[in-house]
Fold each of these.
Amino acid sequence: QVKLPCRRNYVQWTNSSRVLDRWTDHEVLKDWIRERIALFQPDRVHICDGTEKEFQDLITLQIHLGSMIQLNPELRPNSYVVRSDKEDVARLEHKTFICSDSAAEAGPTNNWQDPLDTTNRMNTLFENSMRGRTMYVIPFCMGPLDSDMSYIGVQITDSPYVVTSMKIMTRMGLAVLQKLGTDGDFVPCIHSVGHPLVRGQVDSPWPSNPQKQVVHFPEQRRIWSFGSGYGGNALLGKKCFALRIASAIAREEGWLAEHMLIVGVTNPKGVKKYFAAAFPSACGKTNLSMMAPEIDGWKIECVGDDIAWMRINKKDGRLYAINPEAGFFGVAPGTSYKTNPNAMEGIKKNTIFTNVAITPEGDVWWEGMSKEKPDRLVTWLRTQMTKGDIEDAAHPNARFCAPASQCPVIDPNWENPEGVPISGIIFGGRRSQTVPLVYQARDWQHGTFIGSIMNSETTAAAAGIRGVLRPDPFAMYPFCGYNMADYFSHWLNFASLAPDEKLLPKIFHVNWFKKKSNKFVWPGFGQNIRVLKWIFERTDIENPADGSVVKTPIGYVPTPESIDTSGLDITTEDMKYLLQVDTREWRTEVDIYREFQSKFSKEKFPKRLVHELDLLAKEVAAP
Ligand code: GDP
Ligand code: PGA
Ligand code: MN
Ligand code: MN
């Protein structure tokens, strides 16, 4: 028996002050909430306390509304499946806007709109948009509650799916209101699915609105998202706050907000180092961050799988990183006990799945989870499917949302308020050609250049065509909240914040996705430890030109012998192919980077990066 909250208490909220007073003495926050209530006109308002009971009540509500399905508790306790609308399955980059004061501040990689016009236009969209619904207020903290590196946000939403997902992905509830106190700063985030209900109207299992848009105001540090319920567009703590708004804050305050996993690597001698790695969406971050290493004696522990906030620690002058999130919102397809056993263990319970298929036993399934497709399935499109059907049972961007604490290899320091010291930064992308398995930058400036020239083949994480090569510098193309030319300058200048450049992480680039005859040549996944081992050892070496590397036009590439391939079934010829630097191919790359650089205004674009490109062009020029 489900108890629905009573239907008639929006009158209660015309006199909401007293009710709000019970929750907080933060006058700015209360005023903001009252103004939103007046605009959205919800039937009910619910301030989230973040308790387990609240979570369970909202799960029950979603099941009752028909928007969530409970999985078989014997197979997957406290776990649920939600299927979205066909048009609401990924981030919408063409509907994501950076509304800085001027278009120049947003830069050529962002969609810009005038902040005032947009505010007015969106106010019209938001007017009465929560009629017939409950407005939830979610106080959330990005980063451990006791960390100086954390920031607070408050998200208003009319989606219980968002509330339950935010409960997994962030620290949220009363403790955050307490931390906020009476005058703490917070980033106000508003979200509505844009689907008001009139009395008696039956709700859709995935309410949404065709006029989807995700809008950021970096100067005012606020986020407005309308019409979409999909994770990246609706869980505003994640991409919108922790990357787009945070990157703008980080630039002002002298730190880095990056699209990076954080991983601890321990060698057989027991020496431990942490690495941060930026790969574009659906290019292997979650997998690398919790990988089960395939060589003996090495250990991997996960701090974060998607976002890193990093600053120079005053105590020792090194770069420290925290994971601002508390959960994993990971790509399901391709995840299996073979490829990512730790993710599989981490999603055995307490997990919300989106757009996966359901088995007759009441468990989940997706492409790549097992070799054999189950005989019968209900697809993410809610259709029946039998084994012979060739369409996808799960959407290629189907996701799991699970608490980080459940990951069997979660790092003991994952909630350390100081963060963890970073020894190396690794860039990477999905490149079927040209880019070698791994190489190292000569220094910080060259490393920044390597980050700036990243290109990657598009994936299902964003709406649009897949497999098209596009620039994705630092894996931040869709997430940088300001002009990327300034972002590059920020990275270049960041070196001067460290007391000694030697204390800064070494910089590397990897590519797991090089193909021959349309097949991946490198085995990937747990075998990537072989590359991490090389990187790990390189971070001990003072002079990058030392040891068993080949100096190439793009940086230091390992000699084929220096990558440990013992016990691995790979030919010398394939290793050569994986590590080769073909100057002819790199001439084409240079053209791509020139074209990318030419999109920026000459005054803004850092000369040091133009210089690095000139150098590369000269080195790969035809003899
Ligand atoms: P993220 O979105 O960057 O976190 O990427 P994921 O780790 O979720 O991986 C995205 C997709 O790439 C999944 O389908 C993975 O199975 C696949 N993938 C991850 N790592 C590798 C790898 O080393 N090699 C290959 N071939 N595929 C990988
Ligand atoms: P991903 O996260 O990087 O794990 O794919 C979501 C996204 O970037 O859209
Ligand atoms: Mn991501
Ligand atoms: Mn991921």
Note: Residues 237-253 form the longest helix (17 residues).
Amino acid sequence: ASTLGAAAQQSGRYFGTAIASGKLGDSAYTTIANREFDMVTAENEMKIDATEPNRGQFNFTNGDRVFNWARQNGKRVRGHTLAWHSQQPGWMQSLSGSTLRQAMIDHINGVMAHYRGNIYAWDVVNEAFADGGGGGRRSSNLQSTGNDWIEVAFRTARTADPAAKLCYNDYNIDNWTAAKTQGVYNMVRDFKQRGVPIDCVGLQAHFNSGSPYNSNFRTTISSFAALGVDVQITELDIQGASAQTYAAVTNDCLAVPRCNGITVWGVRDQDSWRSGDTPLLFSGNNKKPAYDSVLAALNAA
Ligand code: G3I
């Protein structure tokens, strides 16, 4: 196959990208995005601050721009993200305790109702674990509502849209030996044992010199999969975009049957949140060597 999406489909997988609503008027951007990718994540437009700017007042204008572009072009959509310590609107930042807990539940219900039946997978909870060596939860206003906030989010989400796969999504959980990876692994294992509804783990896979790709990534993917969840690489970008590293990441996913899709976090280097890192698969209109290595890996699967 000659595009990333079609090549991934040969093994029943998808290949997606983050899309920014503000770029949908850029025909060079949409031409590449439409040709190459078969899954879409809104880069910012379905986050809490975008979708509920005032408590109880939902706004899906930009989320729908991304959603409708994807659907009009035959692509599926990953929802990102419902409960997160970051990009909270001011009103939510100022809440605590049971009021915040209820606001989280109401937010999940409001957003998932709008897209009910139309989202392939939701990142229900994003980045809830702490960096560093402790392996525990990140301190945040949501964590302060009680350690059960994550399972409450997942139970709420299952009821709100039973058709969506429900994912836990985080960064720096790629290295199998990292405490953070083990912390998330233990939570997912506990959820599966206790019947908390979780269907997938999103490994963001933002690689740079500070948190480089590690060859034990495949062990991480297969270990999560062995718990009985799908694994998705959800926000892939690699500082410098080494063709070899991009191929290694792709092959790690392809080696595990339950790793069922890869999403890169933007189309062209100029679209990346990591300005100056040239971490993506396109430079302007041009395919980079990393693009060729990913396509070849997908076609060899
Ligand atoms: O839209 C406003 C604009 O009106 C304003 O003038 C401008 C001035 O700062 O800000 C614009 O908003 C920015 C937004 O991106 C849209 O460009 C925010 O400041 C900026 O913080 C925001 O950054 C996003 C970041 O998440 C915020 O946490 C990045 O685009 C987005 O790529 C990034 O994505 C995250 C994932 O959601 C979770 N995992 C990590 C990943 C990378 O940080």
Note: Residues 43-44, 86-87, 126, 171, 204, 235, 273 surround G3I (CB under 6 Å).
